[in-house]
Amino acid sequence: PAFTALQGVLTADQDIREEIRKVVQALEQTAREILTLLQGVHQGAGFQDIPKKCQKAREHFGTVRTQLESLKTKFPADQYYRFHEHWRFVLQRLVFLAAFVVYLESETLVTREAVAEILGIEADRERGFHLDIEDYLSGVLILASELARLAVNSVTAGDYSRPLRISTFINELDSGFRLLNLKNDSLRKRYDGLKYDVKKIEEVVYDLSIRGLNKEAAVGAGGEK
């Protein structure tokens, strides 16, 4: 009888995981749609309609909120970390996408509280389904490599001031991460990648300065930098 009881527990657990997986697949699909939309900013003409792309992306986040609402109902509220690995990856991607939208709109770093609000979940662990700090930081690091790519593509598109602004932003981000003592392995690996992003952007800015294009960019941005 002991084993019969255990089988019952195992089956219930598998059912929960299966239900979670279904919602996570739907979330992954929405995340792909948002990413496809935002990838358009890397094309030459993409810079013109950034506000329109951001607005559309924010509409998609409405779907994300509905899907996360559904995810919350699939497991006992006090067992968040027991099932966390199922949605951790997609949540990090959604943090990145929310951070990318906010960056494109205002060139600022989104706070964890603001991301939680965009996703319709809690920032505070005590209050239920929340945005884990490490998931937030991972998403921010994905943003850094996306911006390194944007800096390169900006030059191709003839926008010479954007890489300078991205460079300032990424250096501030790097300084922020230096203050943290990162114990999580996957997060530390991601953070190692930030060094390459910083280097890549520095090379873009250096190249602009050699070609004398940063002066032009600084004047265009309102006075010498």
TrEMBL record:
It comes from the Eukaryota. Its main location: cytoplasm. Keywords: Cytoplasm, DNA-binding, Endonuclease, Hydrolase, Magnesium, Metal-binding, Nuclease, Nucleus, RNA-binding. Pfam families: Translin. GO terms for molecular function: endonuclease activity; hydrolase activity; metal ion binding; RNA binding; sequence-specific DNA binding; single-stranded DNA binding. GO terms for biological process: RNA metabolic process. Mg(2+) binds at E146. Ring-shaped heterooctamer of six TSN and two TSNAX subunits, DNA/RNA binding occurs inside the ring. Belongs to the translin family. This is Translin. It comes from Spheniscus mendiculus (Galapagos penguin).
